[in-house]
Amino acid sequence: MPKTLAELEAALDAALNQCESAGCSLTTTQLLILRQALGLVDTPQDSIANPLEALSIEERQLFLSFVREQASQNRSWKTTLLNDWLQGQGSGDVQFLRDRYGIQWLEHIKPIHLADYDGLDESELWKLKVGDRVEVTNGLWEWVQDTGSCSREWFLCTVIGIKDADADSDGQNRHTSCIVRFDSGTEYEIQGIYEWNRPNWRWLS
């Protein structure tokens, strides 16, 4: 029987690998509950909605550093990991994600989960990409108020284009515009998506 946390972790990993080989992998929620029950995760159960809570503090720091690094190179961190896994390549400091958590866990990570860690630099970590699903408020195109006949509403849409504007001669006033397409097919361009219009959009939960 395992006596230490390290031995318990190793035994659990071996069991999970056997489950995966047998084609009966556990769900993300099951994994989180199991790790919590074994004392491997010190996170209260009501916070398991964010898969990043399954990681230890050190693992989370390594993972978020990897996400930052990929963003700085204009690469999708998730695509990089999936390519490594599909091609049987190592993933360096974040190899533990494949070894301990697997693709099911990875697929549950959304930008809103990264946004929970708001001590990070937003411009580095969660820039919009073509294909992202977001919600935008009608405050972009009409005057709204918290109460009254013209209240704030949120509309689902898909990012179909991102454009970084050139800075002026002083290197100032650079801004990013974003084109979104609503489910109705209507398209809308949002100026200053990160600068002055950040309160008017949010990640889809």
Short description:
This protein is an alpha+beta fold and 205 residues long. It has helices spanning 5-21, 28-37, 57-72, 77-86, 95-107, 111-115, 122-125, and strands at residues 133-137, 154-164, 176-182, 187-190, 201-203.
Describe what this molecule looks like in 3D.
The chain is α+β, with helices and mostly antiparallel strands. The protein has two domains: 5-121, no CATH class; 133-203, no CATH class. It has seven helices and five strands, in the order H-H-H-H-H-H-H-E-E-E-E-E. The chain is elongated, with a radius of gyration of 21 Å. Residues 42-47 and 120-125 have low confidence and may be disordered.
Share of helix, binned:
25-40%
Oligomer: single chain
Overall geometry comes to elongated
N-to-C SSE string, H for helix and E for strand: HHHHHHHEEEEE
If you compute it from the alpha carbons, what radius of gyration comes out, rounded to the nearest whole angstrom? 21 Å
Biggest beta sheet attributes: 5 strands, antiparallel
- Helix count equals 7
- Structural class, by secondary structure, is alpha+beta
Number of strands: 5
Q: How far is the N terminus from the C terminus?
A: 41 Å
How would you write the strand order of the largest sheet? 4-3-2-1-5
User: Which strand-content bin applies to the residues?
Assistant: 5-15%
